[in-house]
Amino acid sequence: MKTYCYECNDDKDVELLEKEVTTTIDTITFIYSANIAKCKICGNEVYIPEISDQNLKRANDKYCSSQAKLNHPTQTINYSTLI
Ligand SMILES: [Zn+2]
User: Which of 35, 22, 20 is nearest to 66 (CA)?
Assistant: First the structure.
């Protein structure tokens, strides 16, 4: 797959890598694995809209699941009230 690389100023082969990215949305900090594309020639990270969209979706999914955990903490049952 060839993509324009600013460093090389030309269309170059890119390789796709996974990278753990720490991000904060509102007050929730979480880690998700993002895809990044790197130029095989110079190693510069290149921007590919489709990959960026995928990463955004991954971040959002992770954010939603992190938020769900916060809103629904594991309930501790107080047995004494059952008697
Ligand atoms: Zn390059």
Answer: 22
Q: How far is the CA of 1 from the centre of ligand 1 (A)?
A: 13
| Assigned token pair, 2 | 């060839």
The residue-averaged pLDDT of 47-76 equals 84
> Is residue 70 packed enough to be buried (19+ CB in 10 Å), middle (13-18) or exposed (0-12)?
exposed
Is 2 within 8 Å of 14 (Cβ atoms)? yes
Side chain identity, residue 67: Q
**How far is it, in rounded angstroms, from Cα 79 to Cα 12?**
65
| CA 43 – ligand 1 centroid, Å | 6
Q: Does domain 2-70 have CATH number 3.10.20?
A: yes
**pTM across the whole model:** 0.71
